[in-house]
Structure formats: C-alpha cells, structure tokens
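Dear H.,

Thanks for agreeing to be a second pair of eyes. The structure we're designing against is below in token form, covering all 102 positions.
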C-alpha cells in the first residue's frame, strides 16, 4: 500500500497535467486558424499551378491535423482531470481500503 502522501502527490500531478493538455489544445486550435490563412488564392499562372495545388493541399493537411490534435488533446486533459477527481473522491471515502486494494 502506498503511503497517503504519495497517493496525494500522484493526484496533484494528474490535476496539474490536465490544464497543460488544454493549453496545448488551444495552441493547436490557433495553429489551425493560422494555417488556414496561409492558403494561396492568387494566380501565378499555369507555370505555378501544380506547385500551388500541392502547397494548398499541404496547408489543408496541416489545418485538418491541427484540428484533430486539438480535439484529442482536450480529451486527454479531460481524462486526466476525471481520473484525478475519481481517485481523490475514492481516497477521501476510503474506497480502496474498504476493497483491500491497498
């Protein structure tokens, strides 16, 4: 059985990690908006048409992946926070000791 102070440290670390993932999610959301603004809508003529098509496809990929990353990072942050809250409530209520888990 871990000492109570070690368990509380682990809970505190989980609680601290959640907001970090939310911050990174916000950064990825911002990146997706910034990347959208990098699309090339001007001409360039036939000489650059293949290059511009590939460039815009790359920007679309960055935008899509950034949005997906933001969603996943938010989910990770929420999961860490939920886990911390659950562990904290269970420890407060002595659930682990009642179930002889530690």
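And this is the sequence the design step returned. I haven't edited it by hand at all.
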């Amino acid at each position: 059985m871990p000492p109570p102070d070690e368990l509380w440290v682990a809970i505190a670390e989980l609680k601290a990690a959640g907001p970090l993932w939310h911050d990174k999610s916000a950064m990825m959301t911002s990146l997706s908006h910034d990347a959208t603004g990098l699309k090339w809508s001007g001409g360039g003529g036939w000489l650059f048409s293949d290059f511009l098509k590939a460039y815009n496809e790359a920007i679309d990929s960055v935008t899509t992946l950034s949005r997906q990353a933001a969603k996943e990072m938010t989910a990770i942050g929420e999961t860490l926070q939920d886990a911390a809250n659950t562990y904290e409530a269970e420890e407060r209520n002595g659930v682990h000791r009642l179930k002889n888990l530690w």
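Two observations from my side: Residues 4-37+50-100 form one domain. Residues 45-92 form the longest helix (48 residues).

Warmly,
E.
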